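Re: the request from the purification team.
They wanted to know what the chain is likely to look like in 3D before they choose a buffer screen. I agreed to run a prediction and write the result into the notebook, where they can find it.
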Amino acid sequence: MTVKKMDAMDDGIASGHHFKVYGEVQRVMFRQTLMRAAQRLGLRAAATNMKKDRSAVKLSLYGPQAKVDELVHRLQTVQPLNSWGAKVEKLERDARPWPFVKHQVTTDNVDKKRWNPNVEMYL
């Protein structure tokens, strides 16, 4: 299933599901692991490391509710998420979401990033 791309006027906030993810989520290839899982499910996703809290990542998901629910469930139950030890300890709704384009890593730009290729993804 292909998820509709947002046009330039759509910031994605109203149409998305927004979370803060806490745990071992920075410096462990969490965002790449998450983007690849979202792509496999046909979702659009965006994530950003929080600079002031090294245990937190902002996350936005876009697509069918059932697929979003599936990914959220997997984030909460698959441990670790990858061979670098990424794991989620807490996931909560984000009351102050960011627009899709403000995020550091998205399903649109993940292939343009330079990731360490030595990671196995379990998510």
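For the purification team: The beta strands are 17-24, 44-49, 56-62, 87-93, 105-106.
Please add any questions underneath this entry.
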